[in-house]
Amino acid sequence: MPVDDDAQPLLDVPDGVVTLLVAKVPLEMAVFPEMAVMALARGGPLAAGPYVKDLLMRTSDYIWRDGDDCPYQIAPAVRSLLKGMGANVAACTRDRKPEVRIKALVALRGMGGQMLPHAADVAQLLSDEDSTVRAAAAYALGSVGGRAGRWAAELAALLSDGDPAVRYAAAFTLGGAGRKAAPHLRGLSALLGDEDFRCRLPAVR
């Protein structure tokens, strides 16, 4: 039967889909996870939107890895679905739970250039009270390359963060931010003497 391109989105998500999404196991390990994702994908953002947090929290960060680095067959379907719901994912960066904010940031980073419309949401988390969130936000901005230079000052401020993971992520992204990072080269150079060797690596770059 041919698909009607003008058909309205399927708004009624089957109960079985919800059961899979809220199961206490990762989505990749659920029974017939492809059916759950495909049902949500068919419904479009309006249908899948209410379950975006479940998708984020029940899937491994490995879904954003390509080829042999990603062992999950369901990964392409999950990536495609989340990329089509960028606004919904970005809304999760404002969740009260830091673990949800982190998952949203990982997903946004995985979207690459498609994250750009939501970069401002990501940048707001550079000052998050949770250091893991700050690191994830700084790292996520790296996916937009030189356009991250818009937040060069905020990233530079994190070069002296107490958490080495934050310093590393800020240096990594700032190093690829182009000319707008130039005023902050001294701060980057200072990391060459950082006590954590990981922070010295992006400073060398």
UniProtKB/TrEMBL annotation:
Any one Gene Ontology molecular-function term assigned to this protein's record: oxidoreductase activity
SUPFAM superfamilies: ARM repeat
Domain of life (superkingdom): Eukaryota
Record-given protein name: HEAT repeat-containing protein 1
Species annotation: Pyrodinium bahamense
Lineage of origin: Eukaryota, Sar, Alveolata, Dinophyceae, Gonyaulacales
